[in-house]
Amino acid sequence: DAKKIIKILKVLKTSRLIKKFLLKTKEKYPLIKVRAEKIRTFSELEKEIIQCIDEDGVVLDRASPELRKIRRDILKKEQALKNKLETIIRSSRFAAIIQEPLITVRQNRYVIPVKQEKKAKFPGIVHDKSDSGATLFIEPFVVVELNNSLRQLIKDEEREILKILQKITSLIGERAQEINDSVLCLGEIDFIYARAALADKMKAVEPKLNQDGFINLIQARHPLLQGSVVPININLGRAFNILVITGPNTGGKTVTLKTVGILTLMAQCGLHIPAAEGSEVSVFKKLFCDIGDEQSIEQNLSTFSSHMKYIVQILREADFESLVLLDELGAGTDPTEGAALGMAVLD
Asked: Are 328 and 185 within one domain?
């Protein structure tokens, strides 16, 4: 498929141009340079594709001498056909028979529109008729051989194009592994750029990292909140390792939990976080959260039962290298019992 080959050509060009650009920045970005050096270039393959196919996916005459010759013969044959048909159209003998003085194509054959009632007076092969039935599209007997020759040339053209595409596909196949490796390098570089662009958009900073369970978020913001956002400060893991957040409804308790969780995950994914300079995040081996109402009709679980199911699972799997986020611990039951349950879980 010529259009798919053009898509591959664009990848090859992109690889070459990106590598050329990134190698110029090696002094400023040495780690990017290391990745850029892994990108392979395919200049000869690019030239071969450009020689044979244009940017719209059309195989060019210059792709092979044989294709150029066939296409010249097609043009000559088409012209001869049209000249013959023009002679018929202009002939006074057929003036009253022809519906319209034009040449058209039906079933890949050049034909003339003829009045249905005059069919017997026009020797030829009927290939089609109009929706109304008043017009028949007839191929005159005198051009049948020319039409046959033209169809044969078109078949020859299709076979030659197939040979050219097979040749290019084979050349691509020989370098397929190298191309694939380069695409993976481009993907990695693109991912780095995407992270940088996201950090710039969020006005994010690089957090300090530790493995001691210490979190110190300064002026942190949830990355999905837009507009005027009230930042939060969270300190956890040194003087104490359990933090209970209380306050009225819509006071931001759940958003705070989500902010801590998502910023922790962002940092562990190599992303900058939307917070102030000096913010610090720990690398946790496990992160558990139970946030929101997860009622299950299928399992016939109430709000309370649903929370309890998750909390039991968390208590079973969490350890000293885990971050656990629990929202509205003990909700869905009697406040006194819920408070007692919350204290037991925290203990």
From this structure: no
Q: What is the pLDDT of residue 299?
A: 47
pLDDT value for 334:
67
Token digits of residue 93 = 């003998």
Instruction: Looking at the structure, tell me whether residues 280 and 340 fall in a common domain.
Output: yes
Do 139 and 239 belong to one domain?
A: no
Residues 88 and 213: their CA atoms lie apart, in Å, by: 93
- Tracing tokens 């940017």 back to the chain, one arrives at 55
* Contacts of residue 112, Cβ cutoff 8 Å, sequence gap at least 6: 85, 88, 89, 98, 102, 103, 104, 122, 124, 137, 138, 139, 140
Distance of CA 322 to the CA centre of its chain: 36
Strands 322-326, 232-236: parallel, antiparallel or unpaired by DSSP? unpaired
Which parts of the chain have pLDDT scores under 70?
292-303, 330-334
Q: Which of 290, 289, 287, 262 is nearest to 275 (CA)?
A: 262
Backbone angles phi, psi at 113, to 5 degrees: -75, 125
Expressed in angstroms, the distance from the first to the final Cα of the chain is 66
138 - beta bridge partners? 112, 126
**Which residue range(s) make up the domain with 190?**
2-57+156-200
Q: Would you mind telling me the total number of residues written for the chain in this entry?
A: 347
**Residue 293 C-alpha from the chain's centroid:** 34
